[in-house]
Amino acid sequence: MNMKNTNILYQHGTLALLVPGLLTGTLKMKNLLSHGDTGIGTGEGLDGELIILNGIAYQADSFGKVNPISSEFTVPFANIHYADYKKLTTIANASPADLAKAALQGKPNSNNFFSVLVKGTFSYMKTRAVAKSERPFSTLAETAKNQSVFETKNVAGTLLSYYSPSLFHGAAVAGYHSHFLASDHSIGGHVLDFKIDQGTLSLQQFDTLEQHLPIDNEEFNAHDFSKDDIANTISQAE
């Protein structure tokens, strides 16, 4: 029997490998879903923004559409885990800073990985999705310029966020990395800004980061990351 370990955050790839443009999909969705039922990521060539809820993967593309993803869809980067959220509080009229403060429960910072889930109504939501690029891939900064930004008001949906400690910036995004999916699939993507009208804030903490690397990818194996301005590029792109 395969017991689902809810204390593990599984991550395929690193955000650092996206910086120089290593955007090849190196893991199929069906393999990613063997490690969890909830998560975020992006497709090959930064093909949209992914959100996985209840074991179903969706892509918010640069045209503003939300699409179901096939089991053969490949990703260069993704976070996934088995959901076991505990309700923390209800939250209303809240900005990103308000949500961050509530999730940290009064602590000035956190040295732990955790995930935040907010289900409710949002009086404002601003997301982005990057258009898929083709080979030869450009850098993350160049590729991310070809993105679409979407805004809406008064939308119900789910905000899924992962918090990573500052020590791990480069492997992940230090602080919060959030994606959103509207209940009616009218909007989705990487979250740029929001205002929570009212919702339920739940939290799940992890004691283990399982970092999976694409060791069969020749470009990854050959690349010298010491030449990349990883931290600044990720901070600007995310």
TrEMBL record:
Assigned EC number: 4.1.1.5
NAD keyword on record: no
TM helices/strands, residue ranges: none
Keyword Zinc among record annotations: no
Molecular function per GO: acetolactate decarboxylase activity
Pathway per the UniProt entry: Polyol metabolism; (R,R)-butane-2,3-diol biosynthesis; (R,R)-butane-2,3-diol from pyruvate: step 2/3
Family statement: Belongs to the alpha-acetolactate decarboxylase family.
Listed name of the protein: Alpha-acetolactate decarboxylase
Annotated organism of origin: Liquorilactobacillus oeni DSM 19972
